[in-house]
């Protein structure tokens, strides 16, 4: 029962994945017709696959008949090393950092030429920020991104340097200026941003190391840096060192 | 290319899902042979499906050749309403509650006769607890569970009453005693536990309402309740009311 029900040469497994791939941040709830369209499948094929996915718990049908990602995929996603590894190790240290600063606290890793936010803590008093868990933003315009860029391989740095675009009027778009900043970040051990991603938001970020390797960055977002900068840097460094020590102790392979 | 490569009558989609279903909390990293065994598939079939899942990003191969859940499934899991809905709405209020108490803070929902932990905050100073995000525990032995049980339909309550088992020597196993407590919980608006799930851990929990309906519970875990109880209850209630208000304002459909 393979059936000639999709693009020629496309396996059934690829069609199942195409159905799942129809969902993203901008498409969290889809009707069957929308799924078929976005997955480039005939409606009857999509109908059959969606039925199997729903039965298994990968998708859930809402009362309005739209489909959303189901609890079983949420469960599975929690098993990803990004979640079960550094995120779980960092969580208590992020809490400590949040309790000390009451500012938005981020944990991020590099994904190609972008920064991927793997965790965020923010109370209602914190500055509003654009990042959410799972967001990807440019490396060169965020504090955590600049830390990760400063410690990225040369080819990544070259690729990023060739694509600098202004996001706010404070975004650094001159490769020479950015390159000098990255050198400073490596020397002084932390990065700062001043409204480079979002007007009204500044940040301090520090590397999280596993041995010699920078594996993530911890960042704090505040309305202004001012004279709090040394305190914020110190608090972030203490938390990052705690995470690094725990990583080395083998909590993460 | 359906092929006679698995159990008769099993569709390719079911085989793809069987491969994913091979992973769980106790099996986060699996070799190809282990996947084939756990998914009840011949190794060549498992090999082909794992290859497609890896190409798509659902699975990732580690340097030691074991497979783990990939970043793309983590991304998808974040789209589940349980994550994007109440969890995101509750996050800042949980932060506030954590900052006020420095105790472990839980957000949980009912799933059948169990309590499912959808979020947890705990600093390094908090009491160690057994629950993790994604854990399921008995409704009758945890604070959040008792709140959810107190507001569950009668058939759920009857099912739970018939399966009471001691987890510690303080677990309530007499249906009459539990039933009386559930009535109290509904009257006074909060639940407590004293070492009923874990020795050395007590808790306070309150309902989160969306309109009239109890949709979740917020809980705080502490070493002892003592005279802090009124403060903890008040803090939890303020946070839960904040979540409920935001839910009603339509942040969640």
TrEMBL record, chains A, B:
InterPro entries membership: GAF-like_dom_sf (IPR029016), HTH_MetabolicPath_Reg (IPR050707), Tscrpt_reg_IclR_C (IPR014757), Tscrpt_reg_IclR_N (IPR005471), WH-like_DNA-bd_sf (IPR036388), WH_DNA-bd_sf (IPR036390)
Name by which UniProt lists this protein: Putative IclR family transcriptional regulator
Domain HTH iclR-type residue range list: 10-71
Pfam families associated with the record: HTH_IclR (PF09339), IclR_C (PF01614)
IclR-ED domain location: 72-249
UniProt keyword Ribosomal protein, yes or no: no
GO BP annotations listed: negative regulation of DNA-templated transcription
Highest rank taxon of the organism: Bacteria
Keyword Ribosomal protein: no
GO-annotated molecular function: DNA binding; DNA-binding transcription factor activity
UniProt signal peptide: none
Keyword entries, A-Z: DNA-binding, Transcription, Transcription regulation
């Amino acid at each position: 029962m393979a059936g000639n029900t999709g693009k020629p040469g496309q396996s059934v497994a690829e069609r199942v994945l195409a159905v799942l791939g129809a969902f993203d941040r901008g498409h969290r709830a889809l009707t069957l017709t929308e799924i078929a369209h976005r997955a480039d499948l005939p409606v009857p094929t999509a109908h059959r696959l969606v039925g199997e996915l729903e039965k298994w718990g990968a998708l859930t049908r809402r009362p309005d008949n739209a489909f959303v990602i189901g609890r079983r995929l949420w469960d599975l996603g929690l098993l990803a090393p990004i979640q079960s590894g550094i995120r779980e190790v960092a969580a208590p240290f992020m809490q400590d950092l949040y309790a000390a600063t009451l500012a938005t606290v981020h944990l991020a890793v590099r994904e190609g030429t972008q920064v991927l936010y793997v965790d965020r803590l923010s109370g209602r008093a914190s500055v509003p920020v654009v990042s959410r868990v799972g967001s990807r933003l440019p490396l060169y315009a965020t504090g955590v991104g600049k830390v990760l860029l400063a410690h990225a391989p040369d080819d990544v740095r070259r690729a990023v340097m060739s694509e600098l675009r202004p996001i706010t009027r404070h975004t650094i778009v001159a490769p020479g200026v950015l390159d000098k900043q990255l050198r400073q970040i490596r020397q002084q051990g932390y990065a700062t941003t001043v409204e480079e991603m979002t007007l009204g938001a500044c940040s301090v970020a520090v590397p999280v190391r596993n041995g010699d390797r920078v594996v993530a960055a911890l960042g704090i977002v505040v309305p202004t840096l001012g004279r709090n900068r040394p305190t914020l840097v110190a608090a972030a460094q203490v938390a990052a060192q705690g995470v690094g020590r725990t990583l080395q102790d083998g909590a993460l392979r």
